[in-house]
Amino acid sequence: MFGETKAFSGFAVDDVEAAARFYGDTLGLKVSRANGMLTLHIAGGRDILVYPKPDHVPATYTILNFPVVDIEAAVDELGRRGVRCEQYGEPATDAKGIHRGGGPLIAWFTDPAGNVLSVLEDPGA
């Protein structure tokens, strides 16, 4: 039924202006605006809708993953841009916020609305 549909994902934020600055200026994504919402234009030609929700509650799971070739460099650059990676006890993260136990190396951080994002190491990224 939807096999040929160009589906897209979306998520809510409580402040569209803060989201636009974070995703555009801090993370360096191309961001466009229409009808009070944002569209994040990510590599690969797929867009992500970011919409306002006044009673927004942050997701308790990762809503967006950014594959990177070198997670150490990505986490360091996020830090220079004022983004702090989360420190978790389970799954355990190191002093930089990188989880190194099983699976890809991954670090989580949040957007201004509290939504969880990640960078994960993928040598083919």
UniProtKB/TrEMBL annotation:
Recorded superkingdom: Bacteria
One protein family per Pfam: Glyoxalase
Entry-linked CDD domains: VOC
Domain (VOC): residue spans on this chain: 5-122
SUPFAM superfamilies named among the record's database cross-references: Glyoxalase/Bleomycin resistance protein/Dihydroxybiphenyl dioxygenase
InterPro entries hit by this protein: Glyas_Bleomycin-R_OHBP_Dase, Glyas_Fos-R_dOase_dom, VOC_core
Protein name: VOC family protein
Organism encoding this protein: Actinacidiphila epipremni
